[in-house]
Design goal:
The protein is α+β, with helices and mostly antiparallel strands and 341 residues long. It has 2 domains: 192 residues, BirA Bifunctional Protein, domain 2, CATH 3.30.930; 116 residues, no CATH class. It is 47% helix and 10% strand. The protein contains 10 helices and 6 strands; from the N terminus they run H-E-H-E-E-H-E-H-E-E-H-H-H-H-H-H. It has a 6-stranded antiparallel sheet with strand order 1-4-6-5-2-3.
């Protein structure tokens, strides 16, 4: 039996910030959430050693038979790739694809409470870490879908290996048993990520599902929609996104007008990361006081992990630095040009 001890509140670092939707069954969470110290220790090892973070994305929905058929055709590559359903049956070919679309569409039409915008299906993408074989992704997807959906919702999934990272497209029927609906909320995703990470670990794959804050990261990555808008704007095919335009305006005031005082959200960001750092360092100190050499070594790893955390930063301040640097480069070139005259 391990004598691993925990700092009070440490496990809260990894706990999802909100409960999953009541209509969607709570998973048997990854073992690290059952309070057993050995499992929390194992998770700490994965986190500080940089186990790959998994991705779960809700990517869309279909609202009519035509959209559903087009979606199923896309994920199955026109029926070439095999889809697997809740019962483990394999669906392939255009006939199976058409029959599935017709069946789900007919069921949706019988829903007396459906509205024009009510979906027929929801689409989820499950991405594995780089280098994972398709067989392992398929087994993990099967386990994930059974855990999250099988009691109430029909679904099919297919694994894609045509990109650098193997991933699964999981499509679930919106209307489930007992007239329940697959109303996915933002609060569901952290829990679903944990279920997906556990399913991959059960296949022997290193995987984790922690929040950015728990890893000491304070800036959100730029979303795919914003990236597309920015690319179109750079190519002269559209306006800049309003959110990005606002960020540039705020950054310009910080870069050139001295508006560098922390905004409320930046102060909250710094405070949050300070608490995260303090919990990790307190846990490191506790580990380093252990009689076990492996605990002391882990304590040193946790300290190094905290030192590697990026300094708190915001998009506003990052853009302000870029603007000042670009301005200084421009001024330097002008001085060189003037000196050479």
């Amino acid at each position: 039996m391990s004598d691993f001890k925990l700092v009070t509140g440490f496990e809260e670092l990894w706990r999802p910030s909100a409960r999953s939707n009541r209509q969607i069954r709570q998973p048997a969470l990854a073992a690290s959430h059952n309070g057993a110290s050995d499992n929390i220790r194992a998770r700490l090892v994965r986190v500080v050693r940089g186990a790959p973070e998994v991705i779960v994305k809700v990517v869309g929905r279909t609202r009519n038979a035509r959209q559903l058929h087009a979606h199923l055709s896309y994920i199955s590559r026109g029926g070439v790739l095999e889809m697997e359903d809740r019962e483990g049956a394999v669906l392939s070919g255009r006939d199976d694809l058409r029959e599935l679309a017709e069946d789900w569409s007919a069921t949706a039409l019988m829903d007396r409470h459906a509205r024009t915008e009510t979906p027929i299906s929801r689409a989820i993408v499950l991405s594995a870490p780089p280098g994972v074989e398709a067989t392992a992704v398929r087994e993990a997807t099967r386990a994930f879908a059974r855990e999250r959906l099988a009691e109430r919702f029909e679904y099919v999934f297919v694994v894609h290996t045509d990109t650098a990272i193997a991933h699964a497209h999981l499509t679930a029927r919106h209307l489930g048993r007992d007239a329940c609906r697959l109303n996915l909320k933002k609060a569901d995703i952290p829990v679903w990520r944990e279920t997906w990470a556990q399913a991959l670990r059960d296949q022997g794959i290193a995987a984790e599902a922690t929040s950015r804050a728990a890893r000491g990261m304070t800036r959100k990555p730029e979303g795919s929609v914003l990236r597309r808008i920015a690319a179109q704007h750079a190519a002269g095919r559209g306006e800049i996104a309003r959110t990005l335009a606002s960020a540039y305006q705020q950054a310009a005031r910080a870069a050139f007008l001295g508006d560098t005082a922390p905004k409320p959200w930046e102060a909250a960001m710094v405070h949050r990361q300070s608490k995260v750092r303090a919990l990790y360092l307190a846990q490191a100190k506790l580990l380093q006081a252990s009689i076990r050499p492996d605990d002391r070594a882990l304590g040193a790893e946790v300290e190094a992990f905290v030192r590697s955390m990026p300094a708190p930063d915001s998009l506003r301040l990052a853009l302000a630095r870029e603007m000042r640097a670009a301005n200084e480069t421009l001024r330097s070139r002008r001085r060189e040009r003037d000196d050479n005259r």
